[in-house]
Design goal:
Chain lengths: 348, 346
């Protein structure tokens, strides 16, 4: 298994100052603003955010699949040093599947409902692994499916509706990471449409494949608890901004950004205590109403003062590998040193 | 049915929870036809709900949990008589309403209501918020336009929205705000019983807790009885007095919320809790139960859970375990859970 890189080794993926905008009713709306991060080979990176945080847009920008209207306005995406953003579409098509795999939220919408599983998978093999002769494709499909825990014998002639949601998601993972053998898998809420028990199975599958193939994974999810169980490192997005980057352990124990703190507190404890839940005030930021200050300021419970409304905070290092975009770390006389941030000790 | 003709009286919160049930399902089943009915093919039936007994006492919140396809939403609809039972009976406030119709059913429906999962599909997009909330009042012929308007203002305030929202349209509200509107509408006729079908599933985490708190407040303030349907154990655990766990149309465990979440008895309940991602730093605990929920068209024999169950014995394949009180208040349908009289064999 590849070492879980702390970006010390040469990075597999580097993203610098990525911004994405969509046309809005009055001018363009920047939905991903100035996001930078890097990812080592074999690393599992979680991207956590709520609706409108830009997490899916970020993922789609990486693989060049933004919906129409969406435009990368600045930044670069370096995959093994090669900038993907300037590449012509013909070249991108070669990279998708062979170097970058993607798994979507709802497998039912990805597979063709009127085609058998065998036909769909053998097409993919034909495109991405032309070295496999036609006669051997069926055998390869069966072995690929077996790797994700599906006994394909007698089922290859079935159509997608004959499989359960969990099985379809396994098939999609097989397609994304085994047919083309990519080094990086992008997974956009792969378990959101599944039940808890199946979600746990898919999570285990991703961990197995990572160990087996040395696959790096970017897992986008709204569920910080799921990301906390599967990933090594986490990016927290809010309102299109990267507000915090940290290892999973640090993030859960000592969140650095007020949003992360409040988000963790918002998750109902289990087992329930019968006490009133902590509820974050306000609603999710509306990106169309641009404010010059911190995007989280209207909901923040650790405001420092007017500076939060007027000046956009810069990204500051709290410790090695732990960054937050908040004024509390940039102020020369911060009232509260980061290490005193209240640790969350409750068992959940 | 005389009681239901009066204006809905507010029920007091219960001391010790020992009271006659407000709503109960007795041996309730709901079967649906599946697939095309062809003359040469025997009709296939899906037993969405299969012989369920469930009671909700006045002022009590019962959490109903299960994976998709377990029949939990159908059970909620049966209790409200939105759908009719195939067999069994539905009782509301001491009256059998299984076959109620006309004035009797309308009177019962004034006292019960439903909160839906997706607020955007639960309201008419062309109606102003005030009309959305006033609709049940108008439908039941309660009050005149002026008094309805007064009630709408009261309800809007009750769910914590600014009065200016009355004149807005649904698309001008966020998901969390619109879900509050749906809650306000459900409360319009002053019901005693609410079925909330995954009301927080479409909401973001940071907004979800607001709605859970609101529902907890309303339940306390009005002594509302509630069936809270969800697949999210955390939400159910935050709100419920009792929890019922459903699997393929049958209840497998019911018990006080604290007992069920801390010492789950049924292997399926244990699996659900084990699969829940924890927030403890450094603790990686993915415990994936085997398999997936099977199709309800052709459920496994005996105990429906046996193909996935780590404790399965031969008897589980042939005989369905009945729901038995294994500990005071804790009912479990399992051959393997202790407390089961050993005499029952095939």
């Amino acid at each position: 298994m590849t070492a879980t890189g702390q970006a010390a080794t040469s990075a597999l993926l580097e993203v610098h100052g990525l911004s994405v905008a969509y046309p809005g009713n009055s001018g363009t709306v920047t939905v991903v603003r100035d996001v930078s991060f890097s990812l080592g080979p074999g690393e599992m990176l979680g991207v956590v955010g709520e609706s409108g945080s830009g997490k899916s847009t970020l993922l789609r920008a990486l693989i060049g699949l933004l919906p129409s209207g969406g435009q990368v306005t600045s930044g670069e995406v370096l995959l093994r040093g090669e900038n993907l953003l300037g590449l012509p579409e013909s070249r991108m098509r070669g990279i998708r599947g062979s170097q970058l795999g993607m798994v979507f939220q709802d497998p039912v919408n990805v597979l063709n409902p009127s085609m058998t599983i065998e036909r769909q998978l053998s097409r993919i093999l034909r495109l991405h692994r032309p070295e496999i002769p036609r006669q051997r494709r069926t055998a390869e499909i069966l072995s690929v499916l077996e790797r994700v825990g599906i006994d394909g014998r007698g089922k290859l002639g079935s159509h997608p509706f004959e499989f359960s949601q969990g099985q379809l998601q396994r098939i999609m993972i097989a397609v994304a990471c085994l047919a083309g053998r990519p080094a990086l898998l992008l997974a956009d809420e792969p378990t959101t449409s599944l039940d808890v028990t199946v979600e746990a199975q898919i999570g285990e599958l991703l961990l197995d494949l990572r160990a087996e193939l040395g696959l790096a994974v970017i897992l986008v999810s709204h569920d910080i608890a799921l990301v906390g169980q599967l990933c090594d490192r986490v990016l927290v997005l809010y309102g299109g901004r990267l507000v915090e980057t940290a290892s999973v352990t640090t993030l859960l124990a000592q969140p650095g950004h007020p949003y992360t703190e409040q988000l963790l507190r918002s998750i109902p404890p289990f087992p329930g205590t019968g006490e009133r839940l902590y509820a974050m005030r306000g609603e999710i930021a509306d990106l169309a109403e641009a404010s010059p200050g911190c995007v989280f300021a209207p909901r923040c419970e650790s405001r420092l003062g007017p500076v939060c409304d007027t000046v956009e905070p810069a990204r500051s290092a709290i410790s090695a590998g732990h960054h937050a975009t908040c004024h509390r770390y940039a102020m020369p006389a911060a009232p509260e040193p980061p290490r005193d941030a209240q640790p969350i000790t409750r068992e959940r | 049915m005389a009681a239901a003709d009066d204006l809905p009286g507010r029920l007091l919160p219960l001391a010790g929870g020992r009271a006659a049930p407000l709503v109960s399902a007795r041996g309730v089943s709901k079967h649906f036809g599946a697939g095309w009915r062809l003359p040469w093919r025997p009709a296939t039936r899906v037993r969405a709900v299969d012989g369920v007994d469930l009671e909700v006492r006045a002022g009590e919140t019962v959490g109903l949990i299960g994976e998709s396809g377990s029949g939990k939403s159908t059970l909620g609809r049966l209790l409200l008589r939105v759908q009719d039972v195939t067999s069994g009976s539905i009782w509301f406030d001491g009256t059998d309403i299984t076959g109620a119709h006309g004035a009797q059913l309308r009177a019962a429906r004034r006292r019960m209501n439903l909160v839906f999962q997706n607020p955007y599909s639960a309201v008419d997009r062309r109606w102003r918020i005030r009309d959305v909330i006033a609709e049940p009042l108008a439908a039941h012929g309660i009050g005149d336009p002026a008094s309805r308007q007064e009630r709408v203002s009261e309800l809007i305030q009750l769910v914590g929205l600014p009065g200016t929202f009355e004149a807005r349209y649904p698309h001008q509200l966020s998901g969390g705000q619109l879900q509050r509107v749906v809650v306000a509408r459900a409360l319009a006729t002053g019901p005693d019983f609410i079925v909330a079908d995954e009301p927080t599933a479409s909401l973001d985490v940071s907004v979800r807790a607001q709605l859970i708190n609101l529902m907890a407040d309303l339940k306390r303030q009005f002594g509302l009885a509630m069936l809270f349907i969800s697949h999210d154990l955390r939400t159910v655990s935050a709100l419920s007095d009792r929890i019922a766990v459903m699997y393929l149309g049958r209840l497998v465990e019911t018990g006080p919320a604290a007992a069920l979440t801390t010492v789950p008895q049924h292997p399926y309940t244990q699996a659900l809790i084990a699969a829940l991602p924890r927030l403890a730093p450094g603790q990686r605990r993915i415990v994936a139960p085997q398999g997936e929920i099977p199709s309800a068209v052709n459920p496994p024999s005996g105990c429906h859970y046996h193909p996935r169950c780590p404790l399965a014995r031969p008897i589980c394949r042939t005989e369905y375990p009945v729901l038995e009180e294994k500990q005071p208040g804790v009912w479990v349908a399992c051959h393997a859970v202790a407390g089961n009289p050993p005499g029952i064999t095939v």
